[in-house]
Description:
The complex is a heterodimer.
Chain A: H1 3-10, H2 12-45, H3 49-52, H4 67-75, H5 78-109, H6 115-126, H7 130-143, H8 151-154, H9 162-173, H10 178-185, H11 190-201, H12 203-219, H13 222-227, H14 236-245, H15 252-272, H16 274-284
Helix pairs in contact in A: 2-15, 4-15, 5-9, 5-12, 5-14, 12-16, 14-15
Chain B: H1 3-32, H2 49-55, H3 58-90, H4 96-108, H5 112-121, H6 128-134, H7 147-160, H8 166-175, H9 178-186, H10 191-219, H11 223-228, H12 238-248, H13 252-280
Helix pairs in contact in B: 2-13, 3-7, 3-8, 3-10, 3-12, 8-10, 10-13, 12-13
Amino acid sequence: MTTIDTVNSKHPILKKRxxxxxxxxxxxxxxxxxxxxxxxxxxxxxKSADEILKMPIQWLPEVWNFINFKRAMEVQPILRQLFNTSxxxxxxxxxxxxxxxxxxxxxxxxxxxxxxxxxxLLLATLMLPYEVTMIPTFILWSFLGLTDSYVPLTLPAxxxxxxxIFFLRMYFETxxxxxxxxxxxxxxxxxxxxxxxxxxxxxxALITIGLWAFMGTxxxxxxxxxxxxxxxxxxxxxxxxxxxxxxxETLWGPLMAAxxxxxxxxxxxxxxxxxxxxxxxxxxxxxx
Amino acid sequence: MKRSRVGFLFILPWLIGLILFTTFPLIAALFIGFTDxxxxxxxxxxxxxxxxxxxxxxxxxxxMWVTFRYAIVAIPMTTITALVxxxxxxxxxxxAGIFRVIFYMxxxxxxxxxxxxxxxILDANFGLLNGFLELFGIxxxxxxxxxxxxxxxxxxxxxxxxGSGLFIFLAAIKDIPRSLYESAIIDGASVFQQATRIxxxxxxxxxxxxLVMGIIGAFRKFTDAFILGGAGDQGxxxxxxxxxxxxxxxxxxxxxxxxxxxFMIILTLTVILNVSKKYWVHTE
Lengths: 288, 284
């Protein structure tokens, strides 16, 4: 044992204090680094063009003005794009949550031939290369004449999402067999058992999945970039992308205003629903 | 209806989706990679020409180099960071809840907006980072505009996002029985020894998981790279290269060939990691 250890063990309180101070220093510094980009974004969004290009850095704007927001909305119809993204997300979430739940219910509460094989297949698709199927899927949609619409981005959700099915199957399997047995004695149909019993008891897990699905849509650039061409159908991601490709130093203020508008809804959601996000990581580890 | 039939009906939507959106595209991809298809014209069978062409292209090797270099440095770096922060956060400390939300942010908040914020932070003349460096009299580099500083720029971004991996570590650490630490303390183990002898071995399965996800993530890195770019093609990750081939040049055959190469690389790396597992991953 080293001398330092001996000394420390003689002064347990001192040791604990030192340790705690180190812990707090590490965590607080880390936390500052984590939120700094967002603070910088918001402050920049309210600064005048001169203040933005000032060196050394001027942290706070002298006058908090909304001119950058106004200019941002002149370049890109951000409110419209926020609406488009929300619409896309809602359509997609509905399918991903309820169809995944139905499939998970099938896997969790029934026995049928080939079930184990099919579930293995489902797990295999989880590891499947997205990039390999991306191009043929695009070709399929363009043959159907459905590119430049929300169909390719939403319709597949109505066939369930493997990761969510996997997660919900585990969740549904934890419940007692009595649930459906007693409902069957009362003459309930299987669909009623699913809809009236399993959907309500699955609510916390379904909310977690819904949040993930929402995040997935809100933050996805590649999929939207591939399928959407018309500016009127642009989502927040596409609006920001095309905005950022217009370079020039005077645009930083409006760009930060646009980014602020794009991020506020999702940050707000994280704070409101942190319990569900955290719960999901604990139980599954997926999307960690 | 028989109970087993009902069960099958419930999983049917997924099965149809599997055929439509996975099996069919997969089979198609198998063929497309061997053709010179560019969507508009006819597809001609070209054998391994797409692969040969790719291997002869500087852009291909550049994209591979950019991606591998990033994977080799960023994955260990972010994994260690996530682990260290998780060990500290696992301690009972005041305000742990707030810190957790803050560190979890990059997992939830990503996409174009975050990339744009970093583009601004890394701005050579008026960015936050160089403004900060100037306080110490350091003249910061032109991060994304100077080819030799593009890679460090992406590492900064990776380090910022390391928090998203920290929560599975945190969950694993919280699962370790306290009695293990208590008996170690009685035996006189230091905090450092507790971390290396107890915590580390017990989180190796999570380290394994995080390495696999990291490899997949590096080969799928798109949004940041697409928005940030970088001088001298130093920000041209393979996924951006694939996107350009397929959706800017419409070289579907060649892009599909590239997709298969990426798949084989990811598969090989995952298999190697899996084989190595028995030497370093702790099992119950």
